[in-house]
Specification:
- The protein has 877 residues and is mainly β.
- The protein has 9 helices and 62 strands.
- It has an 8-stranded antiparallel beta barrel.
- The longest helix is centred in the N-terminal third of the chain and has 24 residues.
Length: 877
């Protein structure tokens, strides 16, 4: 038991240790950044200073740190190493400074454990600086610098109010790089309580020249930074309201002008050709016009552009920068030295060196052959150290390599002044006449545009009344003091404002109608040509442009009618003069104004108001509910008409129902069995405009009860013929219900029924009224066995003793009926007989026979008896 307890205790202890270790590894920090800008360095050749003139230090949530270079593009550092004794025998190779975020470095204590201690975070930052330029090997558990740029082992990095100092190791020169803290979001105490943004010039190493917070300018830029430095704007947040100051970094951003003396010869050729010399021909002349414009970026790099000599330009380039590949790229290595770099894309080229020379504004400028290609190590121009040196190079605008001591802000001819950035070469398409007595005296063109033609005497081009010729101008060259005039050609060509060439056909801005067959035209600045006046406008010859047609009107009809000069016309009756997106169906009062572009006809059911400036008006509103109009309105069809007899209006459909029917736009014929007509000019039968009336509903019934409408669109009901009755919805009228049912046809009366031509029965009949719409039954003594005919009297020898008989009944044997229309038969008298059915009379019994009344035969007298003819009995002999 004791052993088990001991084992459990050991396990618990191990678990606790693991938990503690896990907690120790999970270090947390509040993430943030601070930005550093280099303000002091003994030399720009320091590789950390070259790649990290401006850098952002990142602190992450797990306490790791990294560096983000902010100004590294275009800066290069050595990329080949060899022993000191072999340097002279080894070619130079350079690699570009890293541009991306560097490797994350984790702060660790003396045992190698991760920590959030501020001292170890500062050590991690120092390690990030040491390995940033050449990178880290991250294959192991801890990143290892591939080629560290060592810092001082004892105090590699120091923080003081507003500044961070990196002290290089003794073997690396022992110099100190001083950075100004120009931005901070990180919590200072995680790194150093002295980590604050610079807020006072006195915090900087050289406040007199490297800072501006004297209140002379609201942006803290009362005067320019000195040569070899550039402005960094920061905010003093410790005052209310916050103030803005400017710290000067190590390189100036701006442009500077250098004029050159004659260079009679330069032997560099082939891959090492100095193109600025071979193309800019004035450099070899006694008094060159050539100048160099040095445009410096904040990372100390610069573009060197040959200007003022038109021969430098490439005549085959009509757009963009016309100087091709003759411009050069260089950088400040120290505040007084400028050198060029070879690029991997152009490994063999002339190198450049510009240095301050003596005092005043003089510089020395030299060019020589150099190559990154080892195979060129024995090239003649390299082994012979072929060098071209400009005898004189003088700063005439701005400040280069610290010369002159006070920068020149009165820019020379062909350049213009930009505050704090000095003199820029006049761009192509512009002119800079300068110089001036003040810093901002050099105006910038651009070259004026052509007026619309070049010369007045060219055929087909007129100046117009009172106009003066204006020659067109352009400028394809950098650094020019005046624009050039377009050459005289036919047809003439002109230029736009700021043009580099005359490649635009001359324009006719007057657009006189006589030049265009009398058509109304105006100048269109988009197409740069005369265009026909658009719909809804007409030309005003005084203004020389198109003006809106007055309302109500329609657009130019010249192209439609073929009649020259026919422009704004009134819209035809029934149409409105409108402009997109209006329509006649949606236009409301007040929308019909000047400048209409088309005529739109009033839609069905509407007509144009008497006032052409008013919108279309509905038929129901202008002519009443019994009116309509179909189709689009025209001068002949701009009236609402009355619904004709035999028709009705189509009922409007609900929204979304197809096909759609709009109120008062369509009519349709009355259905069979129904009619419509006008009783008077204003009274319609029926009164509902959307329906027709059934014949059975017409009054009085005595007139219309026997009528029908056999066709669509009938204006009156017609009577059924004698022997027929109206047929209502498929039922015999005798079984139907009189009233609103349609009567579309007539049918014959059934057997046993009749109907006279007028459908009237005299009083005293079995119906006891007149105008009955039903057939009457045949009375007693009559019958009818053929539909559609009158009742006939029962013939002699027959009878009918009930109404509605289909047939007559023959008189039984022993009876007779000698008259027609009998309702019964008479019995034969005694001595007479009728032996057959349907006898019209009785026969007399012969002698020797007798009969009783209603006999069908005579009986013989028995023996001993006799009788005369017609005897009712026999008598004895």
């Amino acid at each position: 038991m004791a052993a088990a307890a001991h084992w459990r205790g050991a396990v618990l202890a191990a678990v606790c240790l693991l938990a503690l270790a896990s907690g120790a590894a999970a270090q947390t920090c509040t993430k943030g950044i601070f930005k550093l800008d280099l303000v002091s360095s003994p030399t720009n050749s320091d590789l950390i200073a070259r790649c990290l003139t401006s850098v952002q230090v990142n602190l992450y949530g797990n306490c790791t740190v990294s560096l983000t270079p902010l100004n590294a593009a275009g800066n290069w550092v050595p990329g080949i190493w060899t022993g000191a004794a072999n340097v002279a025998n080894t070619y130079e190779n350079y690699v570009e400074c890293p541009r991306d975020v560097g490797t994350k470095i984790r702060p660790v204590d003396g045992t190698g454990a991760a920590t959030s201690n501020a001292a170890f975070i500062r050590a991690a930052i120092a390690k990030a600086f040491e390995g940033h330029v050449y990178g880290f090997d991250t294959s192991g558990a801890t990143p290892v610098a591939k080629h560290p740029l060592s810092l001082d082992a004892a105090t590699p990095i120091a923080f003081q109010s507003g500044l961070v100092t990196l002290k290089r190791a003794a073997g690396a020169g022992g110099n100190s790089l001083v950075y100004a803290v120009t931005q901070r979001t990180v919590v200072s105490t995680q790194i150093s309580s002295s980590l604050v943004a610079v807020s006072l010039c006195s915090q900087l190493p050289t406040p007199a020249t490297m800072c501006r917070d004297d209140g002379s300018d609201p942006q803290g830029v009362g005067s320019a930074c000195p040569d070899g430095s550039y402005g960094i704007t920061i905010t003093k947040a410790d005052v209310d309201p916050p103030e803005v100051v400017k710290v000067c970094g190590l390189c100036p951003a701006g442009s500077h002008i250098v004029t050159l003396g004659q260079m009679a010869a330069c032997a560099l050729s082939g891959s090492y050709e100095l193109k600025a010399y071979t193309k800019c021909t004035s450099w070899a002349q006694a008094v060159p016009t050539l100048q160099f414009a040095l445009e410096v970026a904040g990372d100390c790099s610069m573009d060197i552009k040959p200007i003022t000599d038109p021969a430098c330009a490439d005549p085959t380039l009509t757009t963009g920068h016309p100087y091709g590949d003759i411009q050069m790229r260089a950088y400040y290595t120290t505040p007084t030295k400028i050198r060029s770099l070879l690029e991997t894309g152009n490994p063999s080229a002339p190198m450049l060196a510009i240095d301050a020379s003596g005092t005043g504004s003089a510089l020395t400028m030299s060019f020589w052959a150099a190559s990154l290609d080892p195979t060129q190590g024995g090239a003649a121009q390299i082994t012979a150290a072929t060098t071209c040196t400009a005898p004189t190079a003088t700063v005439v605008g701005g400040q280069v390599a610290g010369r002159p001591t006070t920068a020149i802000d009165a820019c020379p001819v062909g350049s213009y002044y930009k505050p704090d950035e000095y003199c820029y070469a006049c761009p192509v398409g512009s002119y800079c006449p300068g110089p001036g007595g003040t810093a901002q005296s050099g105006p910038v063109g651009p070259c004026p545009p052509g007026k619309c033609r070049t010369l007045a005497d060219l055929p087909g081009w007129e100046l117009g009344p009172g106009a003066a010729p204006e020659l067109d101008q352009y400028n394809p060259y950098l650094g020019q003091s005046a624009c050039l005039t377009c050459p005289v050609v036919d047809p003439p060509y002109t230029s736009y404002s700021g043009a580099t060439s005359c490649n635009v056909k001359a324009l006719d801005k007057d657009c006189i109608p006589s030049r265009y067959g009398g058509a109304g035209m105006e100048f269109d600045p988009v197409s740069q040509a005369c265009q026909k006046c658009p719909p809804g406008t007409q030309r005003d010859n005084t203004l020389k442009k198109c003006v809106l047609c007055p309302s109500p009107g329609m657009p130019d009809q010249e192209s439609i009618t073929g009649v020259p000069g026919r422009h704004c016309l009134l819209c035809p009756r029934g149409s409105l003069a409108l402009s997109d997106p209006q329509t006649a169906a949606t236009a409301v009062d007040g929308q019909i104004t000047d400048g209409a572009t088309f005529c739109d006809a009033c839609p069905p059911g509407f007509v144009q108001d008497a006032d052409p400036l008013k919108p279309c008006i509905a038929c129901a509103a202008t002519s009443g509910p019994y009116s309509y109009r179909t189709g689009d309105a025209t001068p002949e069809n701009n009236v609402c008409v009355k619904i004709p007899a035999g028709y009705k209006l189509k009922l409007p459909t609900a929204v979304g129902v197809t096909p759609a029917v709009v109120a008062n736009t369509e009519i349709e014929m009355c259905e069979k069995g129904r009619v419509s007509f006008w009783k008077t000019d204003a009274l319609r039968e029926p009164t509902d405009q959307y329906s027709c009336i059934a014949c059975a509903d017409l009054l009085p019934t005595s007139t219309y009860g026997h009528t029908y409408a056999p066709h669509e669109g009938m204006v009156a009901c017609i009577p059924c013929a004698a022997g027929t009755i109206p047929y209502s919805t498929g039922k015999w009228c005798s079984a139907g219900t009189p009233g609103s049912q349609y009567t579309e046809s007539c049918v014959t009366c059934p057997d046993g029924y009749y109907r006279d031509a007028y459908s009237k029965r005299p009083k005293g009949t079995d119906t006891q009224h007149t105008g009955n719409v039903e057939c009457d039954a045949c009375s007693q003594s009559y019958y009818n066995n053929q539909p559609g005919t009158n009742c006939d009297a029962a013939p002699a020898g027959t009878y009918t003793n009930s109404t509605g008989s289909f047939v007559f009944t023959p008189c039984p044997k022993g009876t007779f009926n000698s008259d027609t229309a009998g309702d019964s038969c008479m019995p034969c008298a005694a001595g007479r007989f009728s032996p057959t059915l349907g006898s019209k009379e009785c026969k007399t019994c012969p002698a020797g026979t007798y009969s009783k009344a209603q006999s069908s035969r005579c009986l013989d007298c028995r023996a001993g008896y006799s009788s005369p003819a017609g005897s009712p009995a026999c008598n004895p002999w």
